[in-house]
Every structure is written in C-alpha cells, then in structure tokens.
Amino acid sequence: MKSNPAIQAAIDLTAGAAGGTACVLTGQPFDTMKVKMQTFPDLYRGLTDCCLKTYAQVGFRGFYKGTSPALIANIAENSVLFMCYGFCQQVVRKMVGLDKQAKLSDLQNAAAGSFASAFAALVLCPTELVKCRLQTMYEMETSGKITKSQNTVWSVVKSILRKDGPLGFYHGLSSTLLREVPGYFFFFGGYELSRSFFASGRSKDELGPVPLMLSGGVGGICLWLAVYPVDCIKSRIQVLSMSGKQAGFIGTFINVVKNEGIIALYSGLKPTMIRAFPANGALFLAYEYSRKLMMSQLEAY
C-alpha cells in the first residue's frame, strides 16, 4: 500500500515523540550532571563528586530538575526531527536521482538526518534554554550570579519574557545549530552503519531490540564525540545569559579557552558518554517499534 505523505509524516512525528519520551526518562539524571559540570566545572571534581554534592544540596529530586521542559524539549525535537527526516530522505532521493521508494545508503541517511536537525533546532532551543537554567539554578544562586528566585518552569519562562522578550528564548540558537547540524550527521550515520553491521546481509528492519539499542547507543556516542565542545559553549551561553553575560558563541569560546583551557570544553563528558547508550538506545527502540506498529496498522486498514 502506498502511504499518504501526510499520514506518513504523522506516524513519524508520533514515533519521534515516543522516542523522545523514552530518551528523557532513561537519561535525565546524567543530563543534569552534564549541564552542571559544563557550566560550573570549578565546583565539581568529577562525576561522583557532582552526584554526591547534588544529592546533599537538593536531594534525589535534584537529579530530575528540568525534567518537564526536558520532556517538552525532547518530544518537540524528536517529533520534528523524525518527521522532517522522512521529508529530507525524499529530498536526498531527488538530489541523487533515486526513485521515491528506493533505499538510501547509510551516508545518504546521515545527510538527511543532518538537514532535518536544522528544523528540530528551532523548537529545541527555547525548551532546552529553560531546562538548562532550571538544572543550574542552585549553582547560579550560590555563586551570587542571580538572587534567590522561584525554582519552577513558569518562573524561568516569566523571567526570560520580562528581561528579553520572546526572542530571549533563542539565546544560544547559533550554537544549537552548530551542534545539531554536524552532530546529527554523525548520529544518524553511526546508527545506520551499526544497523548495517548487525544486519549483515538481512534487512535492517528485521533487527531485534538489542541490536537496535546498541545501534542507537553508537549513534549517540558518535554525536557527542563530534560536537561536545559546541554543546558546552551552548550550555554556558544559555545559563550565564541569566545573569546578563551574553558574549556570544565566539566570545564565550575564546573566554573559556583563555581562562580555563581546552579541557574545560569537555567538562561533563563522562556522564554524557554513560547516558548515550541507554538514552539513545531507548530513543531508537521506542521510535522504530512504535513506527513499525503504526505502519502495520495502516497497512492492515
């Protein structure tokens, strides 16, 4: 059965939302550690120290600060990402002169994912800004960068609107795009190459849950190894602009390298690498299986 493009887009969007939800629920504590260590590397000696201090400061709930905007961010990002991924695959097919139903190579899928990520960044940036600020609120208050404020999603949203207006939600957009576009080339490239490896001659659609999760983990590792310093600068810009410091991407990069050294750009890499396998494995498992289920229902109908 030839599927309607609108129905196909709705399926991709819904499956992407399922994947985004699974990703956040699996990896949120590690994401919190990553953002804290990126933004305040001098406060933490390592992952274990960050975990212990976070628990001592605000308890177990501290690991899940920013979960609601993280859910919104990941659901929005992955819904748009996978919906646009389907469209961008068709664009790539047209560019290379393939039939609409033709299978793309792993490299072509990586290019389609890279194109799709630019659209996803537009919905991700505002929600990730709120998430990062909530995750580092304790450090911002104790370091004197901001006065004590309400630690809620709505208070952060109101603060951004009052200080910078609607465009304030796009602090860090350039660094988000610099992270997403090359990062998702490696993300989808690593995922598709891993699926090809595990399939070894069979159809990639026949892979079971373990190879899918491992492939998703490889994709996540490839993404973060490729663009981690850019993500670190993005976190700095989004969090520190809360106190009025807005140096921009180049200014923040130069400032970090000059005052803290190159190694500071890799603060929080360990929790990110640990998070990559379960979070991205869960993302692709939820995406592929929910998409397969909806496609089978559509074909049966």
TrEMBL record:
The keyword rRNA-binding does not apply. It is found in: Mitochondrion inner membrane. It catalyses: L-lysine(out) + H(+)(in) = L-lysine(in) + H(+)(out); L-ornithine(out) + H(+)(in) = L-ornithine(in) + H(+)(out); L-citrulline(in) + L-ornithine(out) + H(+)(in) = L-citrulline(out) + L-ornithine(in) + H(+)(out); L-ornithine(out) + L-lysine(in) = L-ornithine(in) + L-lysine(out). Its main location: mitochondrion. Keywords: Membrane, Mitochondrion, Mitochondrion inner membrane, Repeat, Transmembrane, Transmembrane helix, Transport. It is a multi-pass membrane protein. InterPro entries: MCP_dom_sf (IPR023395), MCP_transmembrane (IPR018108), Mitochondrial_Carrier (IPR050567). GO terms for cellular component: mitochondrial inner membrane. Solcar repeats lie at residues 7-91, 104-197, 207-293. GO terms for biological process: mitochondrial L-ornithine transmembrane transport. One of its GO terms (molecular function) is antiporter activity. The keyword Transcription does not apply. Belongs to the mitochondrial carrier (TC 2.A.29) family. Mitochondrial ornithine-citrulline antiporter. Catalyzes the exchange between cytosolic ornithine and mitochondrial citrulline plus an H(+), the proton compensates the positive charge of ornithine thus leading to an electroneutral transport. Plays a crucial role in the urea cycle, by connecting the cytosolic and the intramitochondrial reactions of the urea cycle. Lysine and arginine are also transported by the antiport mechanism. In addition, catalyzes an electroneutral exchange of ornithine or lysine for H(+), a reaction driven by the pH gradient across the inner membrane. This is Mitochondrial ornithine transporter 1.
